[in-house]
Amino acid sequence: MNIGEASERSGLPSKTIRYYEEIGLIRPSRGGNGYRDYAVSDVHKLRFLQRSRGLGFSVEECRQLLALYEDKSRASADVKDIAQAKLTEIDQKIREMMELRRTLEHLVHACHGDDRPDCPILEELSEAKPA
User: Fold this and answer.
1) Cα–Cα 20 to 30 A to 129, which of 16, 35, 54, 90?
2) What pLDDT was estimated at residue 98?
């Protein structure tokens, strides 16, 4: 099938499919005319990549997961390690976002939100604090 059909069947834009080919995640065959010829297995890999990316895995993590998926002698522990590391990363991001939320919530409650010019939100934002 051509890239348009692969795009339609996988739900990924043609540009993304070309990018995945460029970085070696998929390798469609080439017809005699030089055009890409996507097999059903390529579309399956594209769906796998789409789902993996949707769960927050990086391109390199997707590469590892795809390699493990294709390796029938894989150990599920290897897959679990990658997923556990991603879960730990997500948990850390959630903690960071919750801290940001608490800070912003405090500032919002401190601001009167009326016609007065003084505003604790702007005061806090203007304070020079090292990153």
Assistant:
1) 90
2) 98
Q: Which residues in the chain land under pLDDT 70?
A: 128, 130-131
CA angle 2, 36, 5 (to 5 degrees): 15
Give the per-residue pLDDT at 92.
98
Mean pLDDT of the chain: 94
Choices 2.40.50.140, 3.30.420.310, 1.10.3720.10, 1.10.1660.10: CATH for 1-57: 1.10.1660.10
Contact 46, 10 (CB under 8 A): yes
Backbone angles phi, psi at 30, to 5 degrees: -115, 135
- Cβ partners under 8 Å of residue 52, min gap 6: 61, 62, 65, 66
Distances, alpha carbon 121 to alpha carbons 39, 98, 99, 118, in Å: 56, 18, 16, 9
